[in-house]
Amino acid sequence: MTGTITDVPGVKVGHAQNTEALTGCSVILLERPSVCGVDVRGSAPGTRETDLLDPMNMVSVVHSICLSGGSAYGLDAATGVMQYLEDQGVGLDVMFGVVPIVPGAVLFDLAIGDHKIRPDRQMGYEAAAKASKDAVAQGNVGAGTGASVGKLNGFANAMKSGLGCASVKLDNGLVVGAIVAVNAVGHVFDPQSGKILAGPRDGEGALIDSVEVMKISAFSPIPPGTNTTIAVVASNAILTKSEAKKAAQMAHDGLARTIRPIHTMNDGDTIFSVATGEVEATVDLIGTLSADVLAAAVISAIVHAEPAGGLPSYTSLSNNDAR
């Protein structure tokens, strides 16, 4: 077990990033077409192919999922993933070739690094070509390269976040994993201790509670377009399309346990849920474990992040120790 989403049979991950521009994308590549559902809770999402995943619609499987920085511009990265899969002959057979099904979601990282450089078709192709079963690199990589948290006291007082993973395996062979790029407007806290791990800072650099900042503001202090946490939870369970969607809904509890505030009007929080179809399991179990591993993945994204773009990270604060 690597402790990452690639522990789930049939799931590979590849990253590509520009460390100077501070943006990138992460591709979840599936070794065989797999059932997928999605649940969008933020009110300002940037997504593609999410309507296709509605249980009422025809296509029941996907071939890959692309998570990207770059705001809406970053949706272009999924086109590169499609091109890579087409080159491999992978996709939905439409008699005149194949059409790879690649849903995706983006986060806003234009406030850090070079906003003129965004994940594009070439970066998406590169990430897909790198996809492997190896332990997933975490922190300032892929879709987490430009991720940040704690923006309610101004971006200059925010902190660097990143990409995180977690997984769990049961005795019956069921594996559930998560990958998440954490780009929240609020703070991230440890659900066990309640300690704020990363968030807005005051003038002396001390961490402060995001909700307390909101309480003293006469207007909404949430900057538009500066948010969004995007994730994929995956299991080797046998699920229907509607059950996969329910698991995605339940997985959002993992964000609520670790990020405050969450699902605001300026967030685009989106979770995809993939089932590769090997082990019998109830949707209630899959949804519960998905929330658990997603919460752990959020914490992992924070503790693996490194300072960048003038922002400190969890490990760079003097009162914190790397986990």
TrEMBL record:
Family stated for the protein in its record: Belongs to the peptidase S58 family.
Protein name as annotated: P1 family peptidase
UniProt organism field: Brevibacillus choshinensis
